[in-house]
Write a structure and sequence with these properties.
Layout: H1 5-22, H2 26-56, H3 61-110, H4 119-130, H5 139-166, H6 168-194, H7 196-214, H8 219-224, H9 228-280, H10 286-329, H11 333-337, E1 350-357, E2 367-374, E3 379-384, H12 390-397, E4 405-410, E5 413-414, H13 420-424, E6 427-430, H14 441-446, H15 453-462, H16 466-470, H17 493-507, E7 511-515, H18 523-536, E8 541-545, E9 557-562, E10 565-570, H19 572-578, H20 581-590, E11 593-594, E12 599-600
Helix pairs in contact: 1-10, 2-3, 2-5, 2-10, 3-5, 4-7, 4-10, 5-6, 5-10, 6-9, 6-10, 7-9, 9-10, 15-17
Length: 606
C-alpha cells in the first residue's frame, strides 16, 4: 500500500481505536500526561525570568528564596507525576502490542495452507511481524511516538504563539526550517522502508544459516564433512549484503542530519541577534531575553523532535500498512468455520472426480482429469516414483489445497461444502516430515496441555514406544528437544516417526493416512509396524504411501502413479499377474533384500 497522509491518519485512528478497545484508560492517561508535560516546560522557561526580574527590582533574598522553593516544589511534583504516568503508559502500550502479536499469530495459524509454502507470502508475513515485534519500530513505536509528539506539539504551539507576537520574521524562519527538515527526514525513513523487503529476504536467509550453524543436531555432518568454513562463507556473504543495504540507509540519515544542523545554526544565530538588538534598544528586559532565548532553545529541541516523530510515524505507517494488509488479505476465518456438518463419520467414502490440479503460481499440472474412488473401510496403497503426485493426493484429500478443477466427494458431497475445521477432525495423518514440538511427550501425543494420560500411554504402546518412554525419569512428562527444557531428550529419526504415529492413534480419526512416515525405519521394522497398525485401525478407511512395495501388499487396492496419472490399479495379486510396471518395481526391490545377511539396499521409489 502506498504511503500518504490519508493512510497515516487512517492508521493512527485505527491504532487509537484498538487501544481504546483493549484498554479503556489509555486515552485518559494520554491526555493527563499531555497536560502535565505542557506545564513543565512553561515553568522551566519562566523560572530564569522570575529570578532575574526579582533581582532587578532589588527584592530581598528571603523573598526570592521562598518563591524559588515554591516553584521548585511545583516543578518536582509535576516531574514525578509525569515520570509515573510515562511508566504506566509504556507498560500499557507494551500489553496492547502483545495483543497485536497474538492476533497475527492466530492469523498465521488460520491462513490457508498454500500461503505457507509461497516465498512471497513468507516475506509479507515477515514484514507484518516487523510491525509488532518490538518497541523500536511498528505499532508500539507509533504508540510511544504519539505519546511524545502530543506533548511536544502542545508546548511548541504555545511557544510559537509567543514568538509570533514577538517577531513574524523569526516565526517564518522557524516554520520554513521545520518543513525542510521534515521533508529530508521523511525521505530517509521512506528509503529505509522501501528496502525492507530486501532486508527481510536477507534476514530470513541469515536466520536460517545461523540456526543451522548453532543447531547441535547438525553437529555430526558439520564436522565429518568439514562444513565449518563453507557455512561461515555463506553466512558472511549474506551479512556483507545486509551491511551494504544498511550503509545506503545510514547515508540518507546522515544527509538529513546535516540539513537539520544547518537550520539549527541559522535559527539560533538569527534569534540571538534579534534578542540582543531588542535588549540594547530597551525593547526587552534581561529577564525577557532569558525567557525568549530559553523558548527558542526549547523550540529547536521540540521542533527537531516533532520532525523526527512525524517522519517516524509516517515511516512506521508503512510497517502498519504491511500488518493491516496481511491481516485483511489472509483472513480465512469464514472459510474455516462455515459449511455443512460432516455426515455419519464411521463410513467414509471418497471420490476424486475429474480432478485437475497445479500448484499456485505455477503452470505445470500435477493431475489432469484424475479419477479415483476410495470405498468405506478400504485400505488403499499409493505408490510411484519421485514426483509422481502421491503426497499431492493427500494434500488435496485433506483440503490443504483445493483442486484447480473437478471435485472431491465425501459420501457424494463436494468436500468444499463442509465446515473445514470440522472436516480436519476426521483425519489422522502422519506425513513423512511430521514434526515434534519442544513440549512434553504427553503434549506432543495429545496436542493438549492436559491430555488423557491413559490414552497417551495406550497410543505409545501401540506405536512400540512405551518401553523407551518408561525408561525415562519423567516418563511422558519428559520434554522433547532441549530448546525450552535443558533436560529434554533428543529421539532418533525412527523414534520420532513412531511418536508421530502415536499422535495419529491418539486422535483416532476415522480416516487414517500414512504418508511414508516409516522412511527412517528398516524394511523389517516398517513391515511389522504397518501390519500392526493395520490391525489397530479397526476397519477404518486408510491410505498408505510407501516406497517399499512389499510393505503395502496387504492393502485392498494399490494405485501406481506416474506423472500424475494412475497407470495401474488393483490388489497385489492382480497387479503381479499383469506383469506390468508394478511387477517390475516389486521384483527389482525384492532382489535387494537379503534377509539372511540382514542387509537392505534402498530403491529410489517413494
Amino acid at each position: 500500500m502506498k504511503e500518504n497522509n490519508s493512510s497515516t491518519n487512517r492508521n493512527i485512528r485505527y491504532l487509537l481505536k484498538e487501544a481504546i478497545n483493549k484498554d479503556k484508560m489509555f486515552i485518559i492517561l494520554l491526555l493527563s500526561s499531555t497536560a502535565i508535560n505542557t506545564i513543565i516546560p512553561c515553568v522551566s522557561v519562566f523560572i530564569p525570568k522570575f529570578i532575574i526580574d526579582y533581582i532587578g527590582h532589588e527584592n530581598k533574598f528571603n523573598d526570592i528564596s521562598f518563591k524559588l522553593i515554591e516553584l521548585f516544589l511545583i516543578f518536582c511534583i509535576l516531574k514525578f507525576v509525569s515520570c509515573f504516568l510515562q511508566g504506566v503508559i509504556s507498560k500499557r502500550i507494551m500489553k496492547i502490542r502483545i495483543q497485536f502479536v497474538i492476533n497475527l499469530q492466530k492469523r498465521c495459524l488460520d491462513m490457508d495452507y498454500p500461503f505457507t509454502e509461497n516465498p512471497d507470502i513468507l516475506n509479507e508475513n515477515l514484514n507484518a511481524w516487523k510491525a509488532c515485534q518490538g518497541g523500536q519500530i511498528g505499532i508500539e513505536s507509533v504508540y510511544n511516538t504519539i505519546f511524545n509528539v502530543s506533548n511536544n506539539i502542545v508546548v511548541t504551539i504555545l511557544f510559537l504563539y509567543l514568538i509570533f507576537n514577538l517577531s513574524i520574521g523569526m516565526f517564518m524562519i522557524i516554520f520554513i526550517s521545520f518543513i525542510v527538515s521534515y521533508t529530508y527526514h521523511f525521505r530517509a525513513k521512506k528509503f529505509q522502508h522501501d528496502n525492507i523487503t530486501n532486508i527481510s529476504k536477507l534476514d530470513r536467509k541469515n536466520d536460517y544459516i545461523g540456526d543451522l550453524m548453532s543447531n547441535f543436531a547438525y553437529g555430526k555432518e558439520m564436522r565429518i564433512y568439514n562444513l565449518k568454513e563453507f557455512m561461515a562463507n555463506k553466512f558472511n556473504k549474506l551479512v556483507n549484503d545486509r551491511v551494504k543495504v544498511e550503509k545506503k540507509i545510514k547515508t540518507k540519515f546522515m544527509n538529513s542530519n546535516i540539513i537539520d544542523s544547518i537550520f539549527i545554526f541559522i535559527k539560533d544565530g538569527v534569534g540571538l541577534v534579534y534578542l540582543t538588538y531588542s535588549v540594547l534598544n530597551n525593547k526587552m528586559s534581561i529577564g525577557e531575553f532569558t525567557m525568549y532565548f530559553s523558548i527558542l532553545s526549547y523550540i529547536n529541541i521540540m521542533s527537531g523532535s516533532i520532525i523526527e516523530d512525524f517522519a517516524h510515524i509516517r515511516a512506521q505507517n508503512l510497517y502498519i500498512n504491511d500488518y493491516i494488509d496481511f491481516m485483511k488479505k489472509y483472513d480465512c476465518r469464514e472459510v474455516t468455520t462455515e459449511g455443512y456438518d460432516i455426515p455419519i463419520i464411521d463410513k467414509l467414502e471418497f471420490e476424486f472426480k475429474n480432478v485437475s490440479f497445479k500448484y499456485p503460481f505455477t503452470d505445470r499440472y500435477i493431475y489432469e482429469d484424475l479419477n479415483l474412488k476410495i470405498c468405506a473401510g478400504e485400505k488403499l496403497a499409493v505408490v510411484g516414483v519421485n514426483g509422481s503426485g502421491k503426497t499431492t493426493l493427500i494434500k488435496l484429500l485433506t483440503r490443504l489445497y483445493e483442486p484447480t478443477s473437478g471435485e472431491i466427494l465425501l459420501n457424494g458431497i463436494n468436500i468444499k461444502k463442509f465446515n473445514k475445521k470440522e472436516y480436519f477432525k476426521i483425519f489422522s495423518v502422519v506425513f513423512q516430515d511430521s514434526k515434534l514440538y519442544p513440549f512434553t511427550i504427553k503434549e506432543n501425543i495429545s496436542s493438549q496441555e492436559e491430555g488423557n494420560e491413559k490414552k497417551v500411554l495406550d497410543s505409545l504402546e501401540k506405536a512400540d514406544m512405551i518401553e523407551k518412554i518408561n525408561k525415562l525419569h519423567k516418563g511422558i512428562d519428559t520434554s522433547v528437544f532441549k530448546h525450552i527444557d535443558e533436560q529434554g531428550i533428543e529421539f532418533s529419526g525412527g523414534e520420532n516417526q513412531k511418536l508421530t504415529l502415536a499422535r495419529a492413534l491418539y486422535k483416532d480419526g476415522n480416516m487414517i493416512i500414512l504418508d511414508e512416515p516409516t522412511a527412517a525405519l528398516d524394511p523389517i521394522a516398517e513391515n511389522e509396524l504397518y501390519n500392526n497398525f493395520n490391525n489397530l485401525i479397526n476397519g477404518k478407511t486408510a491410505i498408505y504411501i510407501s516406497h517399499r512395495l512389499a510393505s503395502t501388499s496387504f492393502c485392498d487396492k494399490i494405485a501406481l502413479f506416474e506423472n500424475g496419472k494412475i497407470i495401474e490399479y488393483g490388489n497385489h495379486s492382480e497387479l503381479m499377474a499383469q506383469k506390468g510396471q508394478y511387477y517390475k518395481i516389486f521384483k527389482t526391490q525384492a532382489s535387494y533384500y537379503k534377509t539372511d545377511e540382514k542387509e537392505v539396499q534402498e530403491y529410489e521409489y517413494i
